[in-house]
Design goal:
The structure is a homotetramer of 198-residue chains. Chain A is mainly α. The first copy, chain A, contains nine helices and no strands. The longest helix of chain A has 26 residues. Chains A and B meet through helix 1, helix 6, helix 7, helix 8 and helix 9 of A and helix 1, helix 6, helix 7, helix 8 and helix 9 of B. Chain B binds a DNA duplex (21 and 21 nucleotides) through helix 3.
Chain lengths: 198, 198, 198, 198
Amino acid sequence: MAHIPADTRREQFIDAAVRVIARDGAAGATTRRIAEEANAPQASMHYCFQTKENLLLAVFEHLSESLRTDSEGAAAEEAGLARTAERLLTRTMRYAVDHLDQTRATFAIAMWAQSTNPELAVRMYGMFLTGWQDVLGSDRETASNEEIASVTRMVVTLADGLSMQLLTDGDRDRTMRDTANACVMLSTFVETLLRRSA
Amino acid sequence: MAHIPADTRREQFIDAAVRVIARDGAAGATTRRIAEEANAPQASMHYCFQTKENLLLAVFEHLSESLRTDSEGAAAEEAGLARTAERLLTRTMRYAVDHLDQTRATFAIAMWAQSTNPELAVRMYGMFLTGWQDVLGSDRETASNEEIASVTRMVVTLADGLSMQLLTDGDRDRTMRDTANACVMLSTFVETLLRRSA
Amino acid sequence: MAHIPADTRREQFIDAAVRVIARDGAAGATTRRIAEEANAPQASMHYCFQTKENLLLAVFEHLSESLRTDSEGAAAEEAGLARTAERLLTRTMRYAVDHLDQTRATFAIAMWAQSTNPELAVRMYGMFLTGWQDVLGSDRETASNEEIASVTRMVVTLADGLSMQLLTDGDRDRTMRDTANACVMLSTFVETLLRRSA
Amino acid sequence: MAHIPADTRREQFIDAAVRVIARDGAAGATTRRIAEEANAPQASMHYCFQTKENLLLAVFEHLSESLRTDSEGAAAEEAGLARTAERLLTRTMRYAVDHLDQTRATFAIAMWAQSTNPELAVRMYGMFLTGWQDVLGSDRETASNEEIASVTRMVVTLADGLSMQLLTDGDRDRTMRDTANACVMLSTFVETLLRRSA
DNA sequence: TATGAATGAGCCTTCATTCAT
DNA sequence: CATGAATGAAGGCTCATTCAT
């Protein structure tokens, strides 16, 4: 097992962990299995991340970073809140469909955090919330902060629910069709909201 | 440790397992911990359920049975598809909010099944789908089977997404408020659907 | 599971135990497996034999009794010590070859006794020794008691050694051929012995 | 518990296992007991041997290696087949008498293999057969390969049978006396064989 | 009497982690 | 710095046996 600098190792571990977690769940992702998948000594994992918990954290950060990078594109054009929300949800589900392993790992880690470190789970969830709130709030039209927050939560809700189903049966096409339906709902909801507040 | 009839023990184990799973996740729910929580010998668990997997299965059946019993009430009155869907979702989320441990355990087991026995996970998901489809299809108005299925999936999606958020931060009130919003979306979606097919 | 009188059960258990021990060894013959093979409740075994050790004892007695019954025929005719020894060995190995399961079980129990209850192992071994000594001593010619004992031990030695090989590879024909060779050795040995003592 | 190099640990485990197996049989030799006897953590056993089966294998290899090393001396001098066979048997039984624990362990493992992994048992038996065949065939006189094989099997048979008795009652002197008798038989057998083939 | 039900003790194995170099 | 070696704690499960009827 060749000596390899820690920085390189970190990446190898994170990538390997995503695959293993997607396959075996967060609890089934043992340090040994991850190390094997990364072609690295088991001790290296602790050298790089100290604990398994830290590794999972790093994995989650990596995953949500990737997703955020992707979803930033949704805000690019001026299109109104409803349209932006639709674009955000569609883009997110497109990403989920194209990166099943990552999606699976994200959810597995989120569930793992809930029982291991609930406060951390809240923080994780918050990362998505604030990230998307920024996207949705970028052109704010007449919507209040509270209304933006409400729409954001609804986007997250739909994304979570659609992903849950995707992860269970792996039916990509049906997921995208349901996503379209969800978009219909989402935009009428936003319009209702805006009309009400006007 | 007093001898106790197996039927009684089964219930004790299932109840204990729900609490432990809610606290520690499905993987963290060790046979030892469950037995301790149930005030029972570890060997009794294997006498009643043979394997830990079987116990988790029984727990899931118990949980979904409880939820189904509850949601049957949603179909009681003649009220149209949109209204029924709203009632079903509201009732489900009300139940989730009132039974946080059960909800947490249900999700934990569902996620656990995904990595342990994916085919089982599909079956579990299917149980909800068909159960709710029956509720929604009971008075079918002009909706086709396919449309009913589509609405059902949307209800499940929303319930999953809302529960996910509830489980993370435990904010019951906000969950019920978001549920109300989700109901708005849901009923406009159903109406759109019916109008389109007319 | 029908209630069945203890006497009948005993036989069922002994027969079942022989098969299970032959298959899984004395240690692998668990009370559950034996009960299953006997189509009997596990508790019946303890009702009939109190302990697993007692059952194995009963099995051994049954097995050695069968073998003894068979070997008694070897003494039937007047034929001199050498010839009788040959007949005894041949007959024993013929029996072993025709009853592999029983032979296997006999050895498994003998080995099991050595580590569980060494004194019992000695007694078991003694049963064969005295039984065969009677056969060989029945027409004593000019041989002394000590000489008879010596020959007996040699017969047992050869039977044990030949059986060991038989149990390992299950080659019945080769065993009988080697038995013929062993008989040659045995009779020349007896003759040497008698000549020496004359 | 001090960290100790794996090679050292392997030896400690093997030595400890021999003692425990001699005392409690192969099935009674639990990983706990062996670790305790070796003054080592239980987990070290799995670090060194992975499974209990592997440990037993290593023990058997160690034991048969020791015996083989010892028996090589039997071939040292030019002495004819009969004499060599006698020397081999005597030497083997001398070794058995001087190393009761090892002998007991060897038989226990051999019997254990018969029910756990029959094919392995055949291979184990074969190790002795071929090893001794080499010793006996080294100066082959006029004997054919088949004759050599036949003699080898007879030596093994006698060694097994004599050991069986030794292990039961532990009577070393009687074993060596019986070994002398067995040698008489063996050499007359070889002579008969050679005369016949001439 | 004979049996279904129940259990304390112990099994083999694997885990995340630490040690020593 | 990075890793091969080693381990305490805990995992799921099975055993012979006893209990209650």
